[in-house]
Write a structure and sequence with these properties.
By secondary structure, the chain is α/β, with parallel strands linked by helices. It is 45% helix and 14% strand. It contains four helices and three strands, in the order βαβαβαα. The protein has a three-stranded parallel sheet, sandwiched between helices. β1, α1 and β2 form a beta-alpha-beta unit. The longest helix has 16 residues. It starts with 12 loop residues before the first strand and ends in an 11-residue tail after the last helix.
Length: 109
């Protein structure tokens, strides 16, 4: 029989894209419930803020943060990367070290 594994959630942070509704919102709720800090992202700022507020009202305010992100727009990725949110500091450092934030964009005119 396989042993149950434990997942250490201390100092964990997740960025969930498209999280203002549906599966993304559900993932944010589950992670926050597990005491993982969640950056709920959405293209539409108003909808994203409303979704984050909904989670905060359900008692998850210590774990849910909103940041506007449209993965098709480099300026919003840069904004997330340059965020002064202390909850993102270690995540951004790790992503940068792994090369995930060295995104090359090709624009076809």
């Amino acid at each position: 029989m396989a042993e149950a594994s434990t997942f250490n959630t201390a100092n964990r942070c997740a960025v969930v894209t498209g999280a203002n509704k549906g599966i993304g919102l559900g993932i944010c709720r589950l992670l926050a419930f597990k005491e993982i800090k969640v950056v709920l992202t959405a293209r539409d700022e108003k909808r994203g803020i409303e979704a984050a507020e909904k989670l905060k009202e359900s008692g998850l305010s210590d774990y849910v943060f909103f940041h506007r992100l449209d993965v098709a727009k480099p300026e919003t990725i840069n904004s997330l990367q340059n965020s002064s949110n202390p909850n993102l500091e270690s995540l951004i450092s790790w992503l940068t070290m792994q090369g995930y934030l060295e995104i090359k964009w090709t624009w076809k005119l």
